[in-house]
Amino acid sequence: MRFFQHLGTYILFLNRVFTKPEKWKILWKQIVFESNNIGVGSFNIISLISTFVGAVSTINIGYQLVSGLVPEYLIGRIVRDSNILEFAPTITALVLAGKIGSNIASEIGTMQVTEQIDALEIMGVNSSQYTSLAKIISGLFAIPLLVIYAMCLSLLGGAISGWASEIISIDLFVKGLREDFNGFNVFFCITKAFFFAFLITTISAYQGYRTKGGALEVGISSTKAVVYSCMGIIFFDYILSQLMLF
Amino acid sequence: MIKLLAINKKFEDRNVLNNISATFYKGKCNFVIGASGCGKSVLMKCMVGLLTPDSGSISFDQRDFVSMDYEGKKSLRQEIGMLFQGTALFDSLSVEDNIAFPLRTFTNLNETEIIERVNFCLNRAHLVKINKLMPSQISGGQKKRVGIARAIALNPKYLFCDEPNSGLDPLTSRVIDHLIKEITEEYGITTIINTHDMKSLFEVGDNIIFIHQGNKWWEGDKTQIRQSGNKELLDFMNASEF
Q: Domain locations in chain A?
């Protein structure tokens, strides 16, 4: 029952967020600021994680395909498909749920408990929109770009680790990457990234906005934002895979 | 002028405000006093629209606020300035941007005019050379004054101050009191001040409402307080005096 109550208030919250802004110029400035915060601010962690995910997936697949009956270049193909279809969008989204989600929830939650949201409302500003819309739009731009970047880096990391651990040569790995390439997989990956970006930013903004109390509750909201965002990502990962791949 | 008529507010089973009626006058510092938890903050939140009273009406110069639609409330709120107990300055914006915020949002002034207005408001609040500082870099007293400067940026008709002296030393408290008084009289603002600081009240108070356990217990001006004969009010006042 509480789930439906939350779902209702979440939808009402989104209804207030997606209304015409008071001044487009102010929104644009916020979007630029938040895009830098979300996109550029997450660059290092995504670089590190995606490179190592690609590297580890090459080693794992190489370890399992020891039989001489399977051509080596298939390692590149499996690394490509597993990273494009699953690892790049899902792991990136889970990492960003932790980094961006907690940041959004704690920022808005702190504004709530320090009466900054009340100040906005008293001025006649739509506080849901002012605090959240720019973050959501920035997330919808930045997160898919980060996923594309993660996808490329994971393949690079896979190629380097395959070569460094003598599992597969770079040439064969690249041959595997190019073999039977299906552009729809990249489309699927970006579609997932958009969904995940929407979930991370809206769930976190909603959790932050409904914070009441003090510092303790800000921490709780921040934790809930990460947990519910991750749950949403996993659930929609399954739904989208089912709908788009079969 | 703000008129309250039979305001009631209940949280679950607890009556927080019982049938409160009052009038707050233009160009005067109207004080709402009472012990912590008596309901004065809830009353103020009802007046500015952060809470909706269960029954009763609140009219701002004959405009009923409670029954207004969202757009009407939004437009009326641009005539309201509020100084919060914790100042509620936006952490991510500099002092200048905090004061410029309502101007950038609700007016069509160009950037030069906005900065001129910001500087005027800062000067009016007796603040200089802090435009570029962040709220975390200024003192509590300065934060209150920036809060006042932000509250008067749009030339409000109504100014609400929630515990304006909390957390301030006595000297700074008097400075803030006099600043509020000056602004109120100079611009003919209807100012409502929630406080339990009796020194403030005797210093700048014009009309006073004493709230006790959610009820309007006494109403008058500061010259009548000591002769009121109201036990709860006198106890409250005597406890505050030392």
A: 24-245
